[in-house]
Amino acid sequence: MLKIDAHTHILPRDIPNWKGKFGYGGFIQLEHSGPGCARMRKDDGQQFRDIEANCWDPAKRIEEMDKAGVNVQVLSTVPVMFSYWTSSADGNEVAKFLNDHIADVVTEYPLRFAGLGTVPLQDADLAVKELERSKSIGLAGVEIGTNINQLNLGERQFLDFFRACEELEMAVFVHPWDMMGEKDMQKYWLPWLVGMPAEVSRAICSLIFAGVIEKLPRLRICFAHGGGSFAATLGRIDHGFNVRPDLCAVDNPHSPRKYLSRLYFDSLVHEASKLDYLVKLLGADQIMLGSDYPFPLGEALPGKLIESCGYDAEIEEMLLSGAALNWLGIDDGRFRSV
User: Fold this and answer.
1) Among 91, 109, 123, 288, which has the highest number of CB atoms less than 10 A from its own CB?
2) Which of 188-222 are b and which e, b meaning 16 or more Cβ less than 10 Å from the residue's Cβ?
3) Which stretches of 194-338 are DSSP H helices?
């Protein structure tokens, strides 16, 4: 079966000295520490993550894809690169640099990769312009964070951006970052274990309650990490909506359950029972393989969880490739020769 990994991250091998160019810090630099090894550091010296060549070398990625039986990866930047905290112009320059790199990789290997851009959402007008440019250079969609400098995605200043995504038929991938409460729970890796799932649910609820999903019925939007804690707490969310409409139904009178048929999730939930719950809740046509390659909190063998569930061939094929193709708006014939 065709296997498309919709959740993977990539960086350029070399990143400009943005601090030197813009005159202020906070940016990620790559410090190559040996053959095939590098450290992601903030320009104040704070270490963020160690990475290997598979994070920047397309040939290495393809080698590992072939070993894992993955035909296609959907490429997106590492969320720490979003740079929403910068000035609009500087954030736009960072986004263009990252998007050009991903577009170049897709152009060089069109049968193995599709690409998602990033945009400076601290300025919604600039974000729309970069979204348009991203489409013009061959990217299939855009990756965004779960909040924009702690503003919820449902805020009115972002509606025109989401409307542009719908009009341009650009897929949207929402990825957790800048987790709420992160500074208060540094121990035990809690921002990644607790904060990230909460962040994704925050984004989903914000978009539903604000009426964004209602207003944009053709918006193709996917939420990372199986939608975070949203599905597990949907009963509470729905109950809260029903008993406190004065607080929850202020901008949208419809139940959150109305929108289950409009949301895509990736499959990165780490246990079969949770995946099966999502398939039954949303349908296999809305759940797509996503591994978070090449990072350790992801799925080491992309698709193994899906393949372990014993689904019939039609459902398995939908999970491994069909849902991703629908979300991306790409005809499956593009990749069938892989």
Assistant:
1) 288
2) eeebeebbbbbbbbbbbbbbbbbbbbbebeebbbb
3) 196-209, 212-215, 224-227, 234-243, 245-248, 272-282, 304-308, 313-317, 323-328
pTM given for the model: 0.96
Separation between Cα atoms, residue 248 and residue 278, nearest integer Å: 24
Q: Are 278 and 265 in contact (CB under 8 A)?
A: yes
**Which residues in 241-268 are b (16+ Cβ under 10 Å) and which e?**
beeeeeebeeebeeebeebbebbbbbbb
The answer to whether 98 and 76 are in contact (CB under 8 A) is no
- The answer to whether 158 touches 219, Cβ cutoff 8 Å, is no
Q: Are 53 and 33 in contact (CB under 8 A)?
A: no
Which domains are seen in the chain, by residue range?
4-334 (3.20.20.140)
CB atoms within 10 A of CB 238: 14
Each residue's pLDDT expressed in tens, for the chain with a length of 338 residues: 999 999 999 999 999 999 999 999 999 999 998 889 999 998 888 888 999 999 999 999 999 999 999 999 999 999 999 999 999 999 999 999 999 999 999 999 999 999 999 999 999 999 999 999 999 999 999 999 999 999 999 999 999 999 999 999 999 999 999 998 888 998 999 999 999 999 999 999 999 999 999 999 999 999 999 999 999 999 999 999 999 999 999 999 999 999 999 999 999 999 999 999 999 999 999 999 999 999 999 999 999 999 999 999 999 999 999 999 999 999 877 786 55
Amino acid at 305: L
Question: What is the C-alpha to C-alpha distance for residues 95 and 118, in angstroms, rounded to an integer?
Answer: 6
On whether the CB atoms of residues 294 and 54 are closer than 8 A, the answer is yes
Q: Are 202 and 145 in contact (CB under 8 A)?
A: no
33: exposed, middle or buried (Cβ count in 10 Å: 0-12, 13-18, 19+) = exposed
Asked whether the beta carbons of 198 and 206 are under 8 A apart, the reply is: no
Q: Are 218 and 163 in contact (CB under 8 A)?
A: no
Token readout for 157 is: 């200043």
Mapped onto helix, strand or coil, the DSSP state of residue 302 is coil
